[in-house]
Design brief:
The complex is a heterodimer. Chain A is α+β, with helices and mostly antiparallel strands. In chain A, 32% of the residues lie in helices and 16% in strands. A five-stranded mixed beta sheet of chain A has the order 2-1-5-3-4, with helices on both faces. Chain A is globular, with a radius of gyration of 16 Å. Chain B starts with a strand and ends in an 8-residue tail after the last helix. Classes of the chains: A alpha+beta, B alpha+beta. The complex binds flavin-adenine dinucleotide (FAD) and FE2/S2 (inorganic) cluster (2 copies).
Chain lengths: 157, 300
């Protein structure tokens, strides 16, 4: 039987050490070990994107990453999106465009949208919809989310 | 999730030693997009495995190398995004990009590998018909050394492959495409993204130097049988014919329809799926021909 493993990683720019069991997902480590509950559990099987984090420059579903795999990586989560100066333009655009209702999907959508706009500052609506196909929302009907991302893209230009 | 141990070997030898010691109880992991779900939801379906061996630290499993003479060697763990972001692969093997860019969504593509898609061995796997269309050869290692297997012989049943418990897939070798080669994968799903194929078709053609004769062709089907299916009768219908010969393309579509042995399930009926095989085969072949002539077909 396995004991806990010591993992050193970088989360939102800061070096973090934690202990976890190999069976714990990165999502479980974030939420249950590190008390970073911004990343949400929707489906726990890779379909909903509520647990989206950025790992080494790529968005991934943290429910489908083992905590031990974070060793030596750079993880960015929703907790690192706003700065001391205030909300990120994408967060502001979500508020202004009413792109959330219950909010469970929102951290995942914001982390995913941020990665898109960092790679492609001016994506088409179609590209945004394709990029966000791995994020599910049961409340908004998606249109407001897509409009918020387009709005944020303009403001960030 | 049940208890597991985790190993991240940095050499093939170490991985093979672990596999030999733990047998059925050990599983190699690439992106984990199938494996982690299985460990969580249905561990009995993977022999109650209790050791995960991460292959991502092994250099051979991460290899991406291409030369005009040798073709492409794609390590078994390479995630989809590294494939479609590689300009050489994107230009040389657009048929592979078709598959790599439709497995899951962006988050899944950040982790999921083609090697994992193949080793998982589901009939609906979106890369396997593409690999068959490209005449891919699989490099496998075990305690006895290395062996090479044609990809169409890799899957032996639903989620069953020719891999022995102490073997692992190292890489996939794509021959260098000569001028006049083109390939395309398309699937039918009721949604736009993020769904399991009702039917899928990978097709390739090799035209002669004047683009007037089909010298060889391959059609392979997903989701319509216990394994992906290579349709040999489609090859016979096409070889020696003009790429403009619509009746040859239609015959290939009919051959695909006959070769399919789908089941009725919530995704579609037998009749519907067979019909899809015909339609998708014709579309995939026409797109492969366009690419073979140097034209472009949008991936999505
Ligand atoms: C939300 C979601 C959407 C999906 N959508 C699609 C889709 O559209 N199309 C599709 O085809 N699939 C889809 N999948 C399934 C899955 O993402 C793919 O099959 C993927 O390619 C698996 O690759 P992986 O690297 O994650 O494999 P892993 O999960 O790491 O491994 C899969 C299997 O292969 C074995 N394995 C891995 N590497 C090796 C090796 N080197 N040697 C021996 N055995 C090995 C593992 O032990 C395991 O049994 C989806 C999955 C999810 C969760
Ligand atoms: S909780 Fe990870 S994708 Fe739904
Ligand atoms: S706001 Fe409720 S799921 Fe998206």
């Amino acid at each position: 039987m396995s004991t806990k493993t010591h993992v050193q990683t970088k989360i939102n720019g800061e070096t973090v050490d934690f202990l976890c069991e190999p069976r714990q997902s990165l999502l479980e480590v974030l939420r249950d070990v590190l008390q970073m509950t911004g990343s949400k559990e929707g489906c726990n099987d890779g379909n909903c994107g509520a647990c989206t984090v950025n790992m080494d420059g790529r968005i991934v579903d943290s429910c489908l990453v083992l905590g031990v795999e974070a060793a030596g990586s750079e993880i960015n989560t929703i907790e690192g999106v706003a700065t001391s100066d205030g909300l990120h333009p994408i967060q502001q655009a979500f508020l202004e465009n009413a792109a959330l209702q219950c909010g469970i999907c929102t951290p995942g959508f914001i982390v995913a949208s941020k990665a898109l706009l960092e790679a492609e500052p001016n994506p088409s609506e179609e590209r945004i919809r394709l990029w966000l196909a791995g994020n599910l929302c049961r409340c908004t009907g998606y249109d407001k989310i897509v409009r918020a991302v387009m709005d944020a893209a303009q403001k960030m230009a | 999730m049940k208890w597991i141990d985790f190993a991240n070997p940095t050499t093939l030898d170490e991985a093979i030693r672990l596999l030999s010691e733990h047998g059925e109880k050990a599983r190699v992991m690439a992106g984990g997009t199938d494996l982690i779900v299985q460990l969580r939801v249905s561990p009995e379906r993977i022999g109650n495995a209790d050791l995960v061996i991460d292959g991502k630290g092994i250099p051979e499993l991460n290899e991406i190398s291409f030369s005009k003479e040798e073709g492409l060697t794609l390590g078994a763990s390479v995630p989809c995004y590294k494939i479609y972001q590689n300009p050489t692969i994107a230009e040389t093997y657009p048929g592979l990009i078709d598959s790599a860019s439709l497995i899951g969504g962006i988050q899944i593509q950040g982790r999921a590998s083609i090697g994992g898609n193949l080793c998982n061995g589901t009939p609906s796997a979106d890369s396997i018909p593409t690999l068959i269309a490209h005449n891919v050869v699989c490099k496998i290692v075990g305690p006895g050394g290395t062996r090479e297997v044609d990809v169409e012989d890799f899957c032996t049943g639903p989620s069953r492959t020719i891999l022995e418990p102490n073997e692992l897939l190292v890489s996939l070798h794509f021959p260098a495409p000569p001028k006049g080669f083109g390939a395309r994968y398309i699937r039918f799903i009721p949604r736009n993204e993020m769904d399991i194929a009702v039917a899928g078709v990978g097709a390739s053609v090799q035209l002669d130097e004047k683009n007037s004769v089909i010298k060889s062709a391959r059609v392979a089907l997903a989701s319509v049988g216990p394994t992906p299916i290579l349709v040999n009768e489609a090859t016979s219908a096409l070889v020696g014919k003009s790429p403009e010969d619509e009746s040859a393309i239609s015959k290939a579509g009919q051959a695909a329809k006959s070769a399919a042995t789908p089941i009725n399930d919530m995704r579609g009926t037998v009749e519907y799926r067979k019909h899809l095989c015909d339609v998708l085969t014709r579309r995939a072949l026409n797109a492969a021909i366009t690419r073979a002539k140097g034209g472009t077909i949008d991936v999505h």
